[in-house]
Write a sequence for this structure.
């Protein structure tokens, strides 16, 4: 992907955060609905303590690792300065930067979290390599992303070629298989979890949120996906718990 395309996505993200009233609060409430219980389970399973070093890649204003009660918490965000994150987030040390070039030494973290970020990045494969570099051999990587039914992946990849149709904030689109393939060389999958499922183009798997009106094109896509191809879902928020491959 060109750097220009990534910058376009970042501009879209900044405008979304800066111009939508109470968006950070709404997103935080959404995160808690989806992840509160799972993070409590993970905290026990991974034995998260006050000494555990945790990194949140693409933390944004919400910083999902705030759901952990313990740990030394770090966040990195390309829009950190623009969104004034260091001034607004407590208990997390925020750095300005990209997941493709993490400003941390090798084997520094016990746990890395990347939620709803990998499809926003410039080079997803480079981000995965960087996570492996900064993660301890006995550490864990929690990767969560929206994934789409196969036909929807095709539609979104084709729409990316037409600027008027593309989803500006999401330069990349993953299926269940392609997300797992992305991490195969550097990580072993410990656990797979479907956080939430969505059924329409514009609900993005929001909990208890009704979908707005659909365009004719969207209705056609849904008809093909559900009625002709007999898919039972449109998109899922899919979570992988990973361990590093030790070489």
């Amino acid at each position: 992907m060109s750097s220009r395309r990534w910058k376009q996505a970042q501009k879209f993200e900044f405008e979304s955060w800066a111009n939508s009233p109470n968006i950070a609060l709404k997103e935080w409430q959404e995160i808690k609905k989806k992840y509160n219980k799972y993070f409590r389970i993970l905290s026990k399973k991974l034995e998260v303590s006050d000494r555990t070093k945790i990194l949140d890649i693409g933390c944004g204003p919400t910083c999902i690792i705030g759901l952990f009660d313990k740990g030394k918490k770090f966040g990195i965000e390309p829009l950190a300065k623009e969104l004034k994150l260091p001034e607004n987030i407590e208990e997390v040390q925020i750095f300005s930067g990209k997941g493709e070039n993490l400003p941390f030494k090798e084997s520094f973290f016990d746990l890395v979290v990347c939620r709803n970020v990998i499809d926003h990045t410039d080079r997803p494969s480079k981000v995965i390599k960087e996570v492996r570099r900064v993660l301890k051999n006995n550490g864990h990587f929690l990767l969560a992303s929206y994934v789409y039914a196969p036909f929807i992946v095709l539609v979104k990849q084709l729409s990316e070629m037409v600027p008027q149709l593309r989803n500006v904030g999401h330069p990349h689109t993953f299926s269940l298989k392609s997300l797992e393939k992305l991490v195969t060389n550097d990580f072993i999958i410990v656990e797979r979890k479907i956080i939430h499922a969505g059924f329409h183009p514009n609900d993005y798997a929001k909990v208890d949120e009704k979908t707005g009106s659909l365009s004719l094109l969207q209705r056609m896509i849904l008809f093909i996906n559900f009625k002709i191809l007999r898919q039972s879902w449109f998109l899922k928020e899919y979570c992988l718990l990973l361990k590093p491959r030790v070489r």
Observations:
- DSSP finds seven helices and seven strands in the chain.
- Residues 38 and 153 are 27 Å apart (CA to CA).
